[in-house]
Amino acid sequence: MTQQHTPPDGLVIVDKPSGFTSHDVVAKMRGIARTRRVGHAGTLDPMATGVLVLGVERATKLLGHLALTEKEYVGTVRLGQNTVTDDAEGEIISSTDASEVTRDLIDAGIAKLTGDILQVPSKVSAIKINGVRSYKRARDGEDFEIPARPVTVSSFALYDVREAVAEDGTPVLDLLVSVVCSSGTYIRALARDLGADLGVGGHLTALRRTRVGPYKLESARTLDQLQEELTVMPVAEAAVAAFPRWDLDAKRVRLLANGVRLEMPDLYAGRGPVAVFGPEGEFVALVEAQKGKARSLAVFG
């Protein structure tokens, strides 16, 4: 991570505060970095905290590809109550005594939600249904269904079970969990579905994202810290951290820049975006293998 005082050009790993939307953080970063060209690689709900990857200037071209990487979270699931939003931000719509739910039943429920699963996102998510955001349809009182989508939960671990009593007097269980999952997985939907499977309802009360692809919480900075000292990961460093590297000589760099679809080594087949570097170590482009040839995704050189 390097510090730059001129208009920055790279990734900023933010530790998002609770209560901020991802767009709020982008707006704040536009002021800190003094540029309009800022975007994020995948949203975090307002309630959630933790890793939010922002791109500034040329790094915005990396964001769509970074958004598809694996995510990691720690959070708290409350068994015994359903909410309208599947998290603590929404109104409680049902309460059920969860004190009889055993650890074995919880473990079995978690196992069903691990691996390749079909998940129905929350109705107040940003999923688009026929071009309209789901949360807008829900706010307008529409009756609609969101189709289930395939997601991968590669790890769903339970660390602790704590007995508690909700504000309305209902005995509930608070589960401390960690989740590693594919892009597009909703942790609050996991909480909802676990509660439904156990017959007592469930929702998410706390969530912290600890990793997006290779970018971890240890390298994240709060907005206050970034206001004091803007810490930027250069585009080339960000690309090396996130994607396989392919080094080319000057001649092939020129051919690639002129639109020639170079032959790619077999080792890059099926690996998604590949970062291309020139002979001086300069980051040239992001490409992917298509029928053995390099197809340009974004050019940086």
TrEMBL record:
Domain tRNA pseudouridine synthase II TruB subfamily 2 C-terminal intervals:
243-300
Q: List the residue ranges forming a coiled coil, or say none.
A: none
Q: Which Pfam families match?
A: TruB_C, TruB_C_2, TruB_N
Q: In the UniProt record, does the keyword NAD occur?
A: no
Active site per the UniProt annotation: 45
Can you give the residue ranges of the Pseudouridine synthase II N-terminal domain?
31-187
Spell out the molecular function terms from Gene Ontology. RNA binding; tRNA pseudouridine(55) synthase activity
The protein in question is named tRNA pseudouridine synthase B
